[in-house]
Structures are given as C-alpha cells and as structure tokens.
Amino acid sequence: MSTPSDAMVEIRSVHKKFGSLEVLRGIDLSVRPGEVTVVLGPSGSGKSTLLRTINHLEKVDRGWISVDGTLVGYRRDGSKLYELREREVLRQRTKIGFVFQNFHLFPHLTVLENIIEAPVSALGHPRKAAVAAAEKLLERVGLADKATAYPAQLSGGQQQRVAIARALAPEPRLLLFDEPTSALDPELVGEVLDVMKDLALGGTTMIVVTHEIGFAREVADTVVFMDEGRIVEQGPPADVLDHPTQERTRAFLSKVL
Amino acid sequence: MPPQTVSLPSSSPPPASPSLTKDAADAVPRIVPVRRTGRWAAAVAVLVLLALAMDSVIRNDAFQWDVVLAYFATASVLRGLWLTLWLTAVVMVLGFALGALLAVLRLSGNPVLRAVSWGYVWLFRSTPILVQLLFWFNIGALYPQILGVSTVSLLGPVTIAVIGLTLHEAAYAAEVVRGGILSVERGQIEAAQSLGLGPWRRFRRIVLPQAMRSIVPPAGNMLIGTLKGTSIVSIIAVQDLLYSVQLVYHRTYQVIPLLLVATIWYAAVTTLLSIGQRYVERYYARGTAGAR
Ligand SMILES: Nc1ncnc2c1ncn2[C@@H]1O[C@H](COP(=O)(O)OP(=O)(O)OP(=O)(O)O)[C@@H](O)[C@H]1O
Ligand SMILES: [Mg+2]
Question: Distance between CA A126 and CA A120 in Å, rounded?
Fold first, then answer.
C-alpha cells in the first residue's frame, strides 16, 4: 500500500468470498473528500457487500480499505495485516455512517433516543450536548416536531430521514447508503433524496448504492457500475450514464432507465 | 342526467327491477344483526350450572368455611406464605440470571461453551424436579464434606430448596431468553454495530429490551408456575405455605378447610401476578404499532 493519499476512501484489490461464491473479485476505488460516488449494478453484483466491507460489517479476504487515512479493521505491520480487536473497529465505525435499506431504527426508542444513542454510549458525549445536536439534525432532515415519536408512528420516508440523522449524529467523515429509497413508496422517495442532495451540497463524502438514475445524474461526482463482483466502468455521470463504453453497462442502463 | 339511485345487490331471485323501492333505496338501509339465540341459551345454561355449584360449595358444611376463616391469617400460615413468596422471587431472579448466562453461552461463537450450555439445559429439563430435589437433599451421601465442613450442616433444607429450584428454573429460563434474543432482527444488531456500540451496550440497550417483548409472556407463565411449583419443597420439610397448612391438619385432621386456605392464597397471589404481567407486557410493547 502506497497511500495515505488525499483520498477519503481508498479501496485496493478487495476480494470477498461467501463459501465458494466469489462476491467481490478485486475492487479498486478511490473517493475524494466531499465527493459523492453512486454505485449501480444488477442484483447480486456485490454492491451491498462492498459497502459493508467499508465499515467492516464484512471482513475482506484479500486487499485493504482505508477511510480518512486509516486502515479499516486491520493494523499493518511490515507485510502483514493484523485484524483489530472489536473495540478498535467500533471506534473506527463511529467515523463511518451507514444508512440501511430497511432503516433499522431501534423501535423501542424514540426518534431522539435513536439519534443520541451513539454520541452518548459510543462516544461518551454528555447527554445534554447530544440532545441539542440531535435537535439540530432533526431540523436539518425536516423532522423537528417528531423528536418524541416512536419509529412505528412515522412514514417510511420519515423513518429513513431519522435514520440519516442517526447516522450523522457521531459526526462521521463518510456516509454509506445501501439502497436508501428502495423500501419506500414512490411518493416518499423524493423527500429522502432531497435530504441526501442537501448533504451532498454541504460537502459530505458519500457512497450511495441506488437505482435512482436521476439522483446519480444530478448529484454524483462519480458513477461506478458493478457486475459480478467487479467494477466494470466508472467515471463522471455524463460519461457512464450517457456514453457507457461497456456492453454490460449499456444492457443494465437500458433496463433501469 | 337523472340522479342515479343506489343499487344494492339484492337477494335471489334476481328481480327484473331493483327489489328496493326507490324510497327505500334513497334512505340509507338499516343494518339488522344476526340474532344469536344459541349464544344466549348457552350463557344462561352455564350461569345456572355455576350458581348451583356455588350454592353447593357455600352451603355444604363439610367445607367448614369457619375453619378456613379461623386459620386464614394465622401467624404460621402467613410465615409459610412469606417463605413461598421469597423463595419464588429468589428462584426467579437467580434462575433467570443463570438462564440468561446460559442463553448467551448457547449463542456464543465458542463451540465448547455452546455444548456446555446445551448439555445443562438437556440435563435439567429431562429429569423431574422432584427427583432433582431429592437428589440435592441427599447430596451429603456423595460429598459428606465440602471444603472441610460437613455437607448436612452447610446445606439446610431451605438452601437445598433454593439451589434445586434455581438450577431447574435456569434450564427453562435459558430457552425463554434464547428465544427472545433470536426474535430480535439481525439488522438491529448491525445498526448498533455500525454506530459503534460495544457488545455489552448492544445487548443492554438494543437487544434485551426488544427481546423482552417475547420473553415477558412466557416468563410470566413461569413465575406463576414457580409460585405454585415451590409447594414441592414441602417434601423436604421446608415450611412453605403448603407445608404450614399440612402441619396444622396433621394435628387437627381438618384437611379440606386447610387445603382451602392454601388454595385461596395461591390463587390470590397468582391473580395479582397476572395483573402485574399485563402492565409489564404493555411497557415492553412501547413503540410497536397500537401500543403507547
Ligand atoms: N452473508 C452472506 N452469506 C452468503 N452469501 C451472501 C451473504 N451476503 C451476500 N451474499 C451473496 O453475495 C452476492 C452479492 O450480494 P450483495 O448483497 O452484495 O448484492 P447486491 O449487489 O447488493 O444485490 P441487491 O441489488 O439485490 O441488493 C449475492 O449472491 C448474495 O446472495
Ligand atoms: Mg444490496
């Protein structure tokens, strides 16, 4: 490994197998600070797995990933990578926000409690400061009046916006989104995408797996097309979406557009 | 265009014109519920039978209600009741603490710990509690001394009762807790992990409160079962509620009224516990649809 470069995320030669199934077959990708990278690809191409390796929810079999200049999940000593203890991985994860397709809000906690959980229990912030910060975040996602509601009392779009606020609460350097609008009714997709656009404009580094081509076109700095565990093509949206050079990209886009 | 009348699908035979007259169709038709004659008849019959039974119980002198009343709140009965109550509480608390530990071992990544937990549950669930209790009562035959102290003097009947009941309870509690933990969606743990919450925090703050939703109902049943089940310790001469009334009727031969004393106390306490269980269930259902 040659870096720490100026990249926020550096992914080098990442391989991952589930049993005999090769899900990631050598992924290389860099994301610069403040950039939005949209990952496209057919079902089963390894998009979720790639995102999950970035915050070490999945271990990699080969290769390495660094976020903000720090190796994720491993410590390098000479030519070897030593797996970190869970406590150290957890500390790294507070720097990486993750937004899930199915929100995964904590149903027994109120919206506010969901958001302050990480700052208070993982980072040891004083509760008062965490609550004040959480209220600001709720305002930012347009849900200032929902602090005391339980997740089940919110619409899907509202739940996903709370989940975004929760992911932002530890003040991460990077946000990962795994199909954040796929579980939503069509009329609720817009409100979530609007929040994400707002974050992108604010300079948050984001990697977004999505099928929303319009969002990719409008917001992405880089579009990555994945198929069968490899990055087939990447580049600015105007190139990849409008003038794809690879047949597989063209075939995929003709289906989703 | 003439205003259209509401046309209701009408019953057979299919008429040429709507079966409702124009007037009737304009008004909203009234709904007539089905008459549930059978239900009423059954209710009346059951109430009559119940009244007859109550009457025979109250007026049958053999029940000796005056004796029931006389012994109901005597010091020895209350002492027995108190022992039953605290024994139940101690066994529940210790049993669930050990059970939770067993459940966590069973779900751990360590195959040895998993096997030990499985073996424990297998052993204590596959033998009768009566046998287990008698076994512990006679443990002195196997180990006459523990750390240089004679076993019999170290382990009195009450200690034996606590140990025996707790070990048995823990096997069942382990299964209840394990089921509860498994009922929590995997995504909840991943969400907590991705927020950087440590294992203990994840268990305490995220998994356990959600697991409680499926733990509380069976745990409530176990609590009631344990309260009644503690009566088994009377066979090793621990003076619980049942043993206290037995002591009296062995002397006075008023078996039925004294058993009634115990019965009424057991029923009263289990009723209170059932009511309490409802509130606990409601507490842990917070945040789910329909609750709050
Ligand atoms: N934990 C796992 N164990 C075994 N196989 C897995 C696991 N997770 C993912 N896979 C398999 O890996 C492959 C890639 O999965 P992944 O979820 O990364 O695809 P994806 O591109 O996100 O697809 P989708 O668009 O459907 O979400 C799939 O064939 C999937 O079945
Ligand atoms: Mg996926």
Answer: 6
Judge whether A73 and A61 are in contact, CB under 8 Å: no
Residue B201 · residue A125 · CB < 8 Å: no
| Burial of B230 from C-beta contacts in 10 A (0-12 / 13-18 / 19+) | buried
Cross-chain residue pair A118–B197, CB shorter than 8 Å? yes
Report the residue of A108, A137, A155, A162 to disrupt the B interface, i.e. the one with the largest count of B CBs within 10 Å: A108
Q: How confident is the model at residue A2 (pLDDT cuts 50, 70, 90)?
A: very low
Q: Choose the closest CB to B196 out of A110, A152, A170.
A: A170
Residue B286: which of A93, A122, A150 has the nearest Cβ?
Answer: A150
Tens digits of per-residue pLDDT, B85-142? Answer: 999 999 999 999 999 999 999 999 899 999 999 999 999 999 999 999 999 999 888 8
Which one is predicted more confidently, B3 or B251? B251
Two tokens, residue B82: 């108190």
Q: Inter-chain contact A57–B284, Cβ cutoff 8 Å?
A: no
Task: Report CA torsion sign: B220, B221, B222, B223.
Answer: positive
Question: Structure tokens of B154?
Answer: 């170290």
CA dihedral B52, B58, B61, B62 (to 10 degrees): 80
- Interface with A, mutate which of B194, B200, B205 (most A CBs under 10 A): B194
Report yes or no: A65 and A18 within 8 Å, Cβ to Cβ: no
Contacts of residue B274, defined as CB under 8 A and 6 or more positions apart, other chains included, come to: B220, B224
Establish whether residue A45 lines the binding site of ligand 1, counting it when its CB lies within 6 angstroms of any ligand atom. Answer: yes
Q: How many residues does chain B have?
A: 292
Share of chain B above pLDDT 90, in %: 70
Q: How many CB atoms lie within 10 A of CB B289?
A: 10
Angstrom distance (rounded) from CA A151 to CA A115: 12
Distance, CA of B78 to CA of B283 (rounded, Å): 32
> What pTM does this model have?
0.82
Output the CA angle B142-B101-B279, nearest 5 degrees: 120
What whole-number percentage of chain A has pLDDT above 70?
Answer: 98
Confirm or reject: Cβ of A46 under 6 Å from ligand 1: yes
Tell me what pLDDT residue B146 has. 83
Alpha carbons B161 and B86: distance in angstroms, whole number: 12
Give the pLDDT of residue A1: 47
Cα dist from B102 to A123, B171, B174, whole Å? 31, 8, 6
Write out pLDDT tens, residues B60-74: 888 888 999 999 999
Give pLDDT tens digits for A40-87: 999 999 999 999 999 999 999 999 999 999 999 999 988 888 999 999
Look-up of token digits 């984001």: A206
**Per-residue tokens: A85:** 């203890």
User: Both tokens of residue B123?
Assistant: 């052993």
